[in-house]
Every structure is written in C-alpha cells, then in structure tokens.
Amino acid sequence: MKDIFYGMEKLSLVDFEGHIACTIFTKGCNFRCPYCHNSELALNAPIAPISFLDILDYLNKRKGIIDAVCISGGEPTINKELKEALIELRKLNILIKLDTNGSNPEVLKDLIDSRLIDYVAMDIKSGISGYNRIIDKPNAPINEIIKSINILKSSNIGFEFRTTLVKEFHSKRDIKEIGILLNGTDKLYLQKFTDHGTCIKDSLHEVEKEKALEYQGLLSKHIKNVYLRGY
Fold first, then answer.
1. 3-state secondary structure of 86
2. If residue 6 lies in a helix (H) or strand (E), which one and from where to where?
3. Are 218 and 188 in contact (CB under 8 A)?
4. Is 123 in contact with 149 (CB distance < 8 Å)?
5. What CA–CA distance (Å, rounded) separates 67 from 78?
6. Residue 221 DSSP symbol
7. Helix pair angle (82-90, 52-61), 10° resolution
8. How far is residue 16 from each of residues 97, 98, 151, 169, 209, measured CA to CA in Å?
9. Beta strands at 21-26 and 5-12: parallel, antiparallel or unpaired
10. Which of 110, 122, 183, 106 lies closest to 158 in space, CA to CA?
11. 10 Å Cβ neighbour count for 46?
12. 187-192, strands of its sheet edge to edge
C-alpha cells in the first residue's frame, strides 16, 4: 500500500492515556490553525514518507511493550488510504486511537462502524463564531463538525474533546460558545499551548492557569468533566 505516514514517535506515554503508544503522523491538513505545532505536516512540506512496512515491523518486534497506536497529523481523515492502513494495524491486535479535527464525519463513522478505531480525540477549535478565524478558511465546516460530535456521542467507543487554549484566539465569549457546542457531553480537555518554534505562526501565547481555571468553571456548566492538560 501507499506510504502515508511522515513522522513517527516510537514510544509515547502521553498520546493515549493509560497506554504505551507509538504515534504516527499523516501529512496534509484542510485547516491552517496558526498554533499548529506540526506545521511541516500541516503545510505539506516536501519531506520523505516512512515505510509502512517498517512501521509494521517495528510494532511487531515490540509486542507486549507497545499496546497502542495513535494516528495523528496533519489531519488523518483526508487521506484516502487511511482505512487500508488501519486494517493492517488492526491485525497486530493493538488499540488504535485517532486524532481528528472532525471535518469528515462520514469517514469517522465508517471507521467506527468498521471497528478500526478504539478511541478518538477530536479537536474543538472554538465556538461556532470563532472557527473561521482559527482555521484560516472562509467557510468553516460547522455542520460537519457538529455531525462528528454527535457521531462520537452516540458511539460505543471511548472519546474525548480537546481545546488548545491560545491567548490570541480564546476569550470568555469563545469559551461560552464551546460550552454550548458541547452541551451534555462527558469530557473536554483544555490544553496548555506551548510554542516549540514549529508553529504555523510565531509569537502566540499561552492562556495563564488562572484564566484556564476560570474557563474550566464556565465549561463545567455544560460538560460533565472538564480537565486541564499541561497546566
């Protein structure tokens, strides 16, 4: 099959909570979030792919140590060969987590229905009115994002929503809108933004912990469990 992975973190204790995971990254994204720290992947930089056969070989040799794979990006669901790759990974009898921006609900539903993923982390960039500004697109796929939220809520797999807090893009108004968007859901992580020098845009800033705690309180009116991650 075609090689669709362009990055690999051989061992991670943080990408799939409770599991020792290998994280592999697809290239290309339909969003252009300024604080994305995988800018080379998101912007389709000319980097060489990693052999999928080498990835399978690595995972086979570490059976009993690595118990999960995290598929990240970029945005994995824009890759037509993703399902084929997941079918091969499923044969290894390890758990599979998908990171997604939720813009392709049909793909998400198909992967869930085909039992090819065990857990989903879906990014919630903002409330509805803030999406266009963050993803740098004129028409954010809000209907598709809402469909993906509802698909996860009605699914029988584990999932979480997550929002990376960035001072320049998240105000109290945005947070309140996120609460409305996710009203009645079970779990949201508010993630601390860290600038590692690889973002699409420079000179962005984290939201201070005091403000993050305030946002946590506001969101708890709508969402059962709101956690801070990285603070």
1. helix
2. strand 5-12
3. no
4. no
5. 26
6. T
7. 20
8. 7, 10, 20, 26, 24
9. antiparallel
10. 122
11. 6
12. 5-12, 21-26, 68-72, 95-100, 119-123, 158-165, 187-192, 225-229
**pTM value?**
0.95
Encoded tokens for 204 = 């962005």
**Which amino acid type is present at position 56?**
L
Paired tokens of 117 = 């993923």
Which tokens hold the place of 36? 């994305």
Written as tens digits, the pLDDT of the chain (231 aa) is 788 999 999 999 999 999 999 999 999 999 999 999 998 888 888 899 999 999 999 999 999 999 999 999 999 999 999 999 999 999 999 999 999 999 999 999 999 999 999 999 999 999 999 999 999 888 899 999 999 999 999 999 999 999 999 999 999 999 999 999 999 999 999 999 998 888 989 899 999 999 999 999 999 999 999 999 999
Terminal CA-CA length for the chain = 41
Tell me how crowded residue 96 is: count the other CB atoms within 10 A of its CB.
22
Tokens 């995290």, residue?
70
CA 15 to chain centre: 10
CA geometry: angle at 12 spanning 9 and 16, to 5°?
Answer: 115
